[in-house]
Amino acid sequence: MRIVGLDLGTKTLGVAISDATETIASGLTTLRFTENKPVECLTDLKKIIDDYDAKLIVIGLPKNMNNTLGHAVQRTRNFSSILNDKFNIPIVEQDERLSSVSANNVLLQADVSRKKRKSKVDELAATIILQNYLDIRKGK
């Protein structure tokens, strides 16, 4: 089964996909939309889900560092609700604390330019979120 991983930002949606064995997550793309209007990318996301025949969505839940739920969590849950209505496939929330920080650190260590980092960080964050989910699910 293929699983889609998502990292929702205010202007971008990082997208990753698992392999068929649900072992490895790979980055796919970053979808862009008008600030706080992620519904603008639903057509592109639907195409990805259909192309890969994905059966599950894992979306990063941006909890605060002290484990409280802030405004970003509500924005993510609102988007999850829209996804659930539109695509009718299960959606799982995965704690995403520090996923973007980790993604930036990986890109910095790889000596990726600032411009390229900006275009890849959300895709890599989605990959990290999905990989964490896969690892937990497999008991790693």
Structure description:
With about 140 residues, the chain is an alpha/beta fold. Helix content is about 45%, strand content about 25%. It has four helices and five strands; from the N terminus they run βββαβαβαα. Strand 4, helix 2 (about 70-85) and strand 5 (about 90-95) form a beta-alpha-beta unit.
Give a nutshell description of this structure.
With 140 residues, the protein is α/β, with parallel strands linked by helices. The chain has four helices and five strands, in the order E-E-E-H-E-H-E-H-H.
Give the SSE layout.
Blueprint: E1 2-8, E2 12-18, E3 25-32, H1 42-52, E4 54-61, H2 71-87, E5 91-95, H3 99-109, H4 114-137
Helix pairs in contact: 3-4
Q: What is the count of distinct domains?
A: 1
Query: What fraction strand?
Result: 25-35%
Shape, per Cα inertia axes: globular
Distance between the termini: 19 Å
Q: How would you spell out the order of helices and strands?
A: EEEHEHEHH
Please estimate the helix content: 40-55%
Number of strands: 5
CATH-assigned homologous superfamily: YqgF/RNase H-like domain
> Mean pLDDT, rounded to whole units?
87
Strand order of the largest sheet: 3-2-1-4-5
> Can you summarize the main beta sheet?
5 strands, mixed
**Structural class from helices and strands?**
alpha/beta
Question: What distinguishing features does this structure have?
Answer:
five-stranded mixed beta sheet, alpha/beta, 140 residues, 5 strands, 45% helix, Nucleotidyltransferase, domain 5, 4 helices
